[in-house]
Write a structure and sequence with these properties.
The protein contains 13 helices and no strands. By secondary structure, the chain is mainly alpha-helical. Helix 1 runs antiparallel to helix 2, helix 2 runs parallel beside helix 4 and helix 9 packs antiparallel against helix 10.
């Protein structure tokens, strides 16, 4: 039996409908993407905590949508240096040069300011606020992984405000100029500093650090954060990472011993 004309026309009708649907979807995609970016911008503006805002900042960078920058520009002059730094992270991550400059500015800023994020409730002093703002800026430079920050961070590795975060930031950036200073820190008197240097050397990924790290395998002095374990634990985890015994993308040493942004 010969199929009817109406039956024969159905496949072409289906194809035409699919093409029309795909055409509409193509035109709708920019609008959908813009709506999603606007949702993230709204979340950035209304985030209650700076670390949540920082997560939104990273999501905005992943979207690579430059249209969000004018909507965040007001934050670049915020009195709250944590909010300013989070906005600057988006700008820098999307290739706008002001972002990096503003984060560096926060790192170098010792001026007076009102109470902002990062200092525990009931513990605020101007000195504490300046210290936590500078610490957070150094952390953001590690997040950014911009090699221009290496000489700035190396110059501050003995600065009491940022000494705990500088090794982590250097490890994240991954520039070999940090190798010798981090190896030197393996001999520091402070056990925290030795452990942080060990983890940073793992993140740096240079196996030239292995002989020096092995010398810390008998170092039983305990660190003052992250479970209060001995320095030898950090050294072993760093060695395992450099020798490929766990994923470099998820460094055990880095996860357990990276100083978190102060809250």
């Amino acid at each position: 039996m010969t199929p009817s004309k109406s039956f024969n026309s159905r496949p072409s009708n289906i194809v035409s409908s699919l093409i029309a649907g795909l055409t509409l979807l193509t035109f709708a995609m920019p609008s959908i993407a813009s709506d999603a970016a606007d949702v993230l911008v709204s979340k950035f503006k209304t985030s209650q905590y700076f670390w949540e805002q920082a997560d939104v900042a990273r999501d905005l960078i992943k979207r690579k949508d430059l249209s969000v920058l004018p909507k965040l520009e007001v934050f670049l002059s915020s009195e709250d240096r944590h909010a300013r730094g989070n906005a600057a992270l988006v700008f820098a991550g999307l290739g706008e040069k002001r972002g990096f400059e503003i984060i560096v500015g926060i790192l170098q800023d010792h001026s007076a300011r009102p109470e902002g994020a990062g200092v525990g409730m009931g513990m605020w002093t101007l000195e504490a606020q300046i210290g936590t703002d500078r610490y957070y800026a150094a952390h953001l430079l590690g997040d950014l992984r911009d090699a221009r920050a290496v000489p700035l961070l190396l110059a501050l590795k003995d600065d009491p405000d940022v000494a705990d975060i500088v090794p982590w930031a250097l490890g994240q950036i991954g520039d070999r100029r940090a190798l010798a200073p981090l190896l030197q820190d393996l001999d520091a008197k402070d056990p925290d500093r030795r452990a942080l240097a060990a983890c940073a050397l793992e993140a740096l990924g240079d196996k030239a650090a292995l002989p020096r790290l092995r010398l810390l395998l008998t170092d039983q002095e305990r660190i003052r954060f992250d479970g209060l374990g001995p320095v030898s634990d950090a050294a072993k985890q760093a060695i395992d990472g450099l020798e490929g015994r766990h994923s470099l993308a998820a460094s055990e040493c880095g996860k357990q011993h990276a100083p978190a942004p102060r809250k």
